[in-house]
Amino acid sequence: MEFHINKLEDYAFTNTFPVHASRAVDVSLFNEELHRHIQAREGWISFYLLNNKHNRIEGLVHLHVENAVARSPLKAPFASFEFDARAPIEQRYRFINFVEEELRKKQVARIILKCPLRDYNAFNNTLLEVFLLNHGWQIEEAEVGCLIDCSQPIEENFEAWEGRKFRQAADAGLLFKSLPITSLDEVYLFILACRKKKNYSLSMTLKDLRQAVETFPEHYALFGLFLDNKLVAASVTVRVTKNIVYHFYTDHDDVYDHLSPVVFLTVQLVKEMREKGIQYLDLGTAAFDQHPNFGLLNFKIRLGGVPSSKFTFVKSLM
Questions:
Q1: CATH architecture of 8-143+311-316
Q2: pTM of the full predicted structure?
């Protein structure tokens, strides 16, 4: 980690977009303007931590305000505050307070922040978590997610059961394919049907997912497992940062439970990510009704996932 010493007086906070400033923050997909407009066309308010000396944005947060509640994000897995590595620690702390005071002036009564997994950026997110708690925020929801390091083949470290299922799927002739984005409807409806069999649903409608994919086609990818030309399992992935792909939706036909297709699918996805230079595959959280889903969490860990905390913070301003 490279540390940068900056004079505190070089910094300013603003709720007006600094038109001529460069953006130093490596913003995640769900904080991009176009994605926010997919979530809601209106109602957004933004705040920026500005380095005046170098005329660059080193911190930001975008909040949707409705009925005196400010949320980041509105309809996405996460968003929250984001900072460049050069943003001074003290200014990050003060920036949170500035945002709170500005929202009070606008009669906002409550703020909700849904953060990414801590290990998306452990340095930034650890500081943010502690600073929010220092400012009196509370954790409304605590979840555990899992990240897989894509630099090495995960199957080399499988325990006996996972290794056996991987070999069984390979011997059965399962074929992994990267699918064209034009297969979105087929993939979505397949996953939805698999979820309905298990009494689960999907967080997005097909219409909303289509809009997201059409807006960010380079961020979304579709994959399938086939046996005798029949779709057995499918995945929708989203590249949420330069180095992280989020395994957004996945499921398999329960007729093939004996092959545990998700094991084979995950191995192939990690290989695909490694070839594309992606550092981490985010397997998502493992929770149900604000409690750990122990079976799912254990499965993700046994696949090679490293646990990482994911918090939703709230604060009452009135």
A1: 3-Layer(aba) Sandwich (3.40)
A2: 0.91
